[in-house]
# Entry
Amino acid sequence: MPFIDTHCHYNLDPLYENWPTHWQKAQAEGINQSLVVGADQLSCQRALEITQTEPHLWISLGFHPEVYDIRVTQKTSASELAEQLNQDLTWLKATAFQAGKKLVAIGETGLDYYYFNPAETDLNQLKIQAQTAAFIAQIHLANELQLPLIVHSRDRDEQAYRDILKLLKTHYKFNRPFVLHCASGPLDYISEAIELGAYIGFDGNLTYKKNQNLVEIFQATPPNRRLLETDAPFLPPQSFRGQTCEPWMVRLTAEFIQQQLQIDPEQLTQNALDCFNQ
Ligand SMILES: [Zn+2]
# Structure
């Protein structure tokens, strides 16, 4: 049965140096289409290089919230941050133009407060401001290019999830879907996002021993809104924990969905085609 890996990073180390081997291995395991997701300038450039020659690799272009945390930590001034974000957008637009029809989404972008130190309230506020400005700018880019948005969201409590919904409702024009990549967060946030048109991405962590929250999210997601992802090189399935996640391992998550959750993973393949308008 063919699978689509809707979120993987052949463009990141350690996969990048052997990406053709990893892609061949994935195809041998039944993965017939994958979306290579950019997260900063270098990984977007590599994604472009990888996907241009391979008909079954799509590309998504975006800047991960972590990029903006790093700039804030380097004590970049507010005006410099704004100028750099402007440059990011100009660069993303030019690269989107180069990617042409292979470009199926914008992202990953979003909000990530997971690693914030609660004692650093001022620094955290600056990071939130920088992440928010970048997220809004990329939402507008998705609107302009009429492409789905791939959203990365992570937090130890609920604030990032609440902020994401608020920003999407204010800025995103809902005439096409968006993806909550790597499902996490409270169930009512997931349900509200689904009402707005979200697809929810499920990764190798669905197979972990402590997976109750993710299984609940999976079951609360309508069958036509579930997507299969690896997020390789991150989040290897249970039997490979502690190792690099390789893209072929998406098959293990698909098997888990079939055997433990009694859902035919082929449905998720169709969802990927619908979501990315293919
Ligand atoms: Zn990712």
